UniProtKB/TrEMBL annotation:
Pfam families associated with the record: HTH_3 (PF01381), TPR_21 (PF09976)
Keyword line: DNA-binding, TPR repeat
Organism domain of life: Bacteria
PROSITE patterns: HTH_CROC1 (PS50943), TPR (PS50005)
TPR repeat positions: 403-436
Lineage: Bacteria, Bacillati, Actinomycetota, Actinomycetes, Kitasatosporales
Protein name: Tetratricopeptide repeat protein
HTH cro/C1-type domain boundaries: 16-69
Amino acid sequence: MDQAEGTSPVEVGRRIRNLRTKLGLKQQDLASTDISASYISLIESGKRAPSDAVLTALAGKLGCSPDHLRSGLDDHTLEDTRLKLAFAEMALRNGDNGEALQAFGELLAKPVLLDARMLLRARIGQATALEKLDRIEAAVPVLEELTRNPSLAAGSDEWCRVSVALSRCYRNMGDITLSIEIGERALATLDSLGLDVTVDHVQVGATLIGSYLMRGDVTRAHLLAQKLIPVAEEHGGRAGRGAVYWNAGLVALSRRQLPEALALTERALAMMADDDNLRHVAMLKTTVAWLELQSEVPDPARALELLEDAGGTLSEVGTAVEQARCEICLIDANTQLGRWDEAAAHARRALGLLSSGPRVEAVGARVRLAEIHLLRGETDEGLQGLHAATRQLRHFAPSYETAQEWRHLGDVWKRQGRTKEALDAYDQALQASGMPMTYDPAQVLAKQHQD
């Protein structure tokens, strides 16, 4: 018997009737001023589904809990299930993602033990654990199924969490278009509810800003960030406000406003420093450190301190990609400090973390390792690394991220005096950013002559 059968009106009615007759009660004995005997008859025959209030009233007269009437399980079993679900959610909050995933899987293997609300919580927890373990392709089907769940009410906290997670997962899988569609549809749904701009808007909007930036749509990202900041200040908690300032900082970075970007992310870190989401705080420290390294007067020593702290946390609660991004920043910090051996070690660690699948971050790590070889005078190894990075980067679809990596690669080739390779990389960067090549008049005239 699955969960849907166990809580069907017929099953609930049968349990009420069996308990009533076992106790020697008549339908009239269960009746009250609010519940007629005829209505109880309809419930027992499965023709009416009792509301929570009615079920609670009947449970009181039958000497059991409402949950027992819903599921047929004894109160001890139900309480044990609640404790297991609470344990799984606590493990997830503490960063024990593997343990949480196993606990959610055990609960979902016996759905009859879960009421509709508990089942929803378990499935959301399972999807969250999968995403945090970087098993995004496994998380997406769970999230897609949740969006079709009729018990997931639009505008609810759970609905918002699912919408945000699904948009974020598609973005991390590289499907920026679908990520933006999901985010924009979620915002439109919130607007259609006739509510003022709420914290839910902030959560969805913060994710959408990140997707706009990855598509290179800086203007939309900037406009949305400016819309969300006053809302977050008025309605959001410290973590929500921090998320908005964090994304606003990334927008400022995309607009090449580095001092403003650093100021905004520093403010975000101050707001989120005491947040219990250790993973988010560590990721934000990585961002602040990277901005420190990009500043007009960089502070690699402070960046290194932030990154070592973030790296320790991410090694416990972060995904492989998040750890690799921290390692890449550690390459830059150590390179600026002239610590080339340490920088090379971080580059190799980043490549190891990214070895399970094609990630554009691996190109960045490879280019940095190649440049370290060149700085050491190891020319052959350095040039081989740059050529390998070039070949690897050609396999990625055009995007804002790939444009950045092509630009970085072009800069390194240029510093080596390799004009041809640098120009090719710059050309690829322009194409990846969506800027088409201009036509060659000589080719046009030649084609006309041939015709």
